[in-house]
Amino acid sequence: MAKNEARRNALADAGITVLAREGSRGFTHRAIDAEAGVPLGTTSNYFRSREKLIAGLVERIGIRLSPTPEDLAARASDAPTRELFADYVRDIVRRLTTHRDVTLALFELRLEVARRPDLAAAMREWQHQALDGDVAFNEAAGLPGGRREITLFHYAIDGLVFDRLTSPIDPGTSTDDIVDDLVAGLLR
Questions:
Q1: CA–CA separation, 128 and 126 (whole Å)
Q2: pLDDT, tens digit, for every residue of 78-93?
Q3: What is 57-186's CATH number?
Q4: Rounded-to-integer distance, Cα 123 and Cα 187, Å
Q5: I need a surface site. Which of 70, 112, 134, 154 has the fewest CB within 10 A?
Q6: What is the value of pTM for the model shown?
Q7: Do residues 162 and 108 touch, judged by C-beta distance below 8 A?
Q8: How far apart are CA 50 and CA 39, in angstroms?
């Protein structure tokens, strides 16, 4: 396998773009080569199979959607309240909706996994790690809510973001207001 990490990341980013734009049917090694502007066969040197390519994209999506250390540090000194929890959730939704291609690619990967269960392992592992990380972060920060509430927020945020990126049910309602209502409803 090729070792140039910067090129591997650039190819994964090109794969994210192709997947978001074309869906899984247009998601090929050749399409990624073309999007990245590299010679044919380059993507297959870094990701030998579709399964490895999907695993690489899942990893890259996780990196691109993670909060920055600056975002986390800015809130670290705040008291652990429901309002701080809501601020974290609003930040998650902001990252998911701002990085539209990344989030659409993630939804496409989830649909691909539904069609091809043999690819589910990478997605399932990533989802469980993300949930476990969110629960651990919430507990360490002393924020309200436990594993059950964090799981419910994952479900709700996935639905909210899908709605906002596709055809919103109520486009006139502020996304922040929806998040605040979710927090109030789930953290009684």
A1: 6
A2: 889 899 899 999 999 9
A3: 1.10.357
A4: 28
A5: 70
A6: 0.89
A7: no
A8: 18
Instruction: Quote the tokens at residue 70.
Output: 């600056």
Measured in whole angstroms, how far is the alpha carbon of residue 81 from the centre of its chain? 25
Inform me whether the pLDDT recorded for 1 exceeds 70. no
The mean per-residue pLDDT over the stretch 155-166 comes to 96
The single-letter DSSP state of residue 25 is G
- Helices 29-36/5-22 angle, 10° precision: 110
Q: CB 100: neighbour CB atoms within 10 A?
A: 13
Q: Residue 118 — φ and ψ, nearest 5°? A: -65, -15
- Is residue 67 a contact partner of residue 91, using CB atoms and an 8 Å limit? yes
Residues 161/97, Cβ–Cβ less than 8 Å = yes
How many helices and strands in the chain, by DSSP H and E? 10, 0
Weakest mean pLDDT among 4-8, 9-13, 143-147 = 143-147
- The mean pLDDT value of the chain amounts to 92
pLDDT score at 2: 55
What is the DSSP track for 67-109?
A: PPHHHHHHHHTS---HHHHHHHHHHHHHHHHHSHHHHHHHHHH
Q: Which amino acid is at 121?
A: A
Distance set, CA 16 to CA 5, 55, 177 (Å): 16, 12, 30
- Tokens for 109? 């990967």
Residues 11 and 32: beta-carbon distance below 8 Å: yes
